[in-house]
Amino acid sequence: MSIDPGAGSPLERTLDREYYLSEEIFARERERILFREWFCVGREEELPEAGSYVVKDVAGESVLLVRTREGGLAGHYNVCRHRGSQLVPDKPTGTFAGAIRCPYHSWTYTLSGALRTAPFLDESQGLPKSELSLHPVGVECWGGFVFVNLSPAGAAARGHTLAAQLGDITERVRRYPLAELRVARRIVYQVQANWKVMLENYNECYHCGPVHPELCRLVPAFKQRGGAELDWERGIPHRDGAWTFTLTGTSTRAPFAGLDQDEQVRHKGELIYPNFLLSLSAEHVATFTLWPQGPDRTTIVNEFLFHPGEIAKPGFDPSDAVEFWDLVNRQDWTICESVQRGMQSRVFQSGYYAPMESASLDIRRYIRERLGAEEPG
Prior knowledge:
By secondary structure, the protein is of the alpha+beta class. The chain is 24% helix and 26% strand. It contains eleven helices and 18 strands. A hairpin with a 5-residue loop joins strand 4 (61-67) and strand 5 (73-77).
């Protein structure tokens, strides 16, 4: 039997269980969110020169990103216009020798996606080259991060730019040199939980006291009053004598130049829907890209970014930050998987948000606006 706290209760209901368990709803999320929003897929540094390419799988759609001759980035569906063969079927990174050639019948495209040649066919025979460019994927960059949009015409028609999606976030983190940073370490996790469970978890610290004892020793504010009244815009203070997210709370690495006094000793975090989490310390940045695989499976790529000047120093070792984050991450993923298993119970219909979890209510709004989910009663 379910219990409804009723009017006047401080508890707000979450989305119903189907939004975390249903294959049908996940299919709607793919079409209305993952294929329509700007989806973070990595860093520009993955494409260092003209012809460099990477293949990314966005919720089951294969996307080909290419560095063009002009130095920009182009995005294409990884599908030849001739017979549908994948242009790059088996090598997720590499360099094209000036053009993209389909391995099936050798139709060849420019790096920007225009059809250049089709063997034994030409426009004098009626081949409409201008109509057979690769299917485009929108590409925009911010802070060295690459975002793709799998419905670029619709995004353009709606005026839905990456800048619009980022909103005030760019202003809040403007002093961090994100575009200059480079990835020094990467961890990939396979988590048996719905992608929204991870976003809800990131958006609250009510769980921090029970789940993250080591983190709360470093940042006592995370457990005070259940993580209520955390000032994320200013940043969260560490314990006395600590100033960054490492095993000791300190580092021999220098803080980023240009940070204000608070940012030199506080921690900031941003959630960029639908799939990007940004955690900012004074001398490194930890990023998380979520790659939904199904209603109960999510791949999470955690990358650690440092200033190139620090990376170049003899003896550079990011392990103090990486090992601390890995500990905290595994605690999070374990509890998220427990939530996913628990929601499958026949007695579970929906959960509740306590007042200190108010930021997690935003996922309810976000999904409802895009899927037409009804307001929970």
